[in-house]
Amino acid sequence: MTQFQPTAQNRRGNALEVLMIFFKLGLTSFGGPIAHLGYFHKELVTRRRWVSDSQFSQLLTICQFLPGPASSQLGFTLGLMHAGWLGALAAFVAFTLPSALILTGFAAFLPYLSDSAGAAVVHALKLVAVVIITDAVLTMLKNLCPDTSRKSIAIFSACLLLLTSAAWVQWLVLVIGALAGVNFCRGTTTLADNTIAVGYSKLTGFLLFSAFLILLIGLPIIASHDSGILTIINLFYQAGALVFGGGHVVLPLLQDAVVSGGWMDNETFLAGYGAAQAVPGPMFTFSAYLGAFMPTSYHSTVTAGFALLAIFLPGLLLVAAALPTWQLFSRNALAASAIAGINASVVGLLGAALYDPVFVTSVTSAQDFAICIIAFGLLRIWHLSPLAAIGWCVLASLLPTAL
């Protein structure tokens, strides 16, 4: 297998480039965190070749192991690798800001659509997610599972994940993949394929992890003497620091904290939850909606901003802290075999997620399947932009409501 290994010159870009690309992704990445991985892979691996498939899979593995929003953490690390700390900041801001700004406006706009038209648009975006993820899985299967051993690991991983919905099974699958890689994938990958280069040391990583712990322990103590903005910051920081599995998992925790805590009524919460399903970008931007409704002495937009930053901060600190250690780990010859197995497990993980929950909750009729086939052709056969697939799915889904 020949894998692309970016040179240092290719890898290092500028923050403005990162900002523009992730702003587009923030506006067009519908379908939730699993779909975001497909959008990232299409844009940054297949099209722009910022990183290799192996590097992309490793970054995804790190993000899957850590608490926080995996797709946002992945975008942050891709920006970091391409353009340093400014690139990481640009990726986070550009990918997050559109949905944070759109969320309340989109929630207010939907009632003005007819019920059928609004539902059709949301459904169309779910079909787009099916196509984008399918494209990513096939590409990664070709590049990361070129032999029987790795194909077998991917198939086993997918089957195990399909048999149970427990979040901890994702971790188990990655561990099994690593062990299988050590035993069956020796000599199948090179150390160069596995290099993840970051421009800072293990000491910086340790300081970032220390900052995570200080905030995790210190914020509750400080917030106990404050009933305003610090309490809100602590609430969202704890949610971001302690949840595994991404946006959909954190929502019940937030509901318990803000509704049971008396910050807002359940109807207001559920209205925002519904809007969060329809907007592009990370699900964690739902925190901005919640923050805007929580009473403090600050303007609602300021509170929304604090809530937004607080829920993302722990996950970003953790993933940045982990990268230097992973860099050393990935250069070990035995670790290279483990990473080959992990990469195969990641393919199986995405394949399982493609079926459930993405496919089974999105494709509900033969018409839906036909729409997906044409959209898939736009991407894989005619090599058009994902925007073309989005436009086709929306138009095809709206057509029956107009007749």
TrEMBL record:
A GO cellular component annotation in the UniProt record: plasma membrane
What keywords does the record list, in alphabetical order? Cell membrane, Membrane, Transmembrane, Transmembrane helix
**Known Pfam families for this protein?**
Chromate_transp
Q: Where is the protein localized?
A: Cell membrane
Annotated GO molecular function terms are: chromate transmembrane transporter activity
* Record-annotated membrane-spanning stretches: 20-40, 85-113, 119-141, 153-180, 200-223, 235-254, 274-294, 306-329, 335-357, 369-399
Bilayer disposition of the protein: Multi-pass membrane protein
InterPro entries (alphabetical)? Chr_Tranpt_l_chain, Chromate_transpt
Which family does the record assign? Belongs to the chromate ion transporter (CHR) (TC 2.A.51) family.
The protein's name in its UniProt record: Chromate transport protein ChrA
Instruction: Please name the source species.
Output: Gynuella sunshinyii YC6258
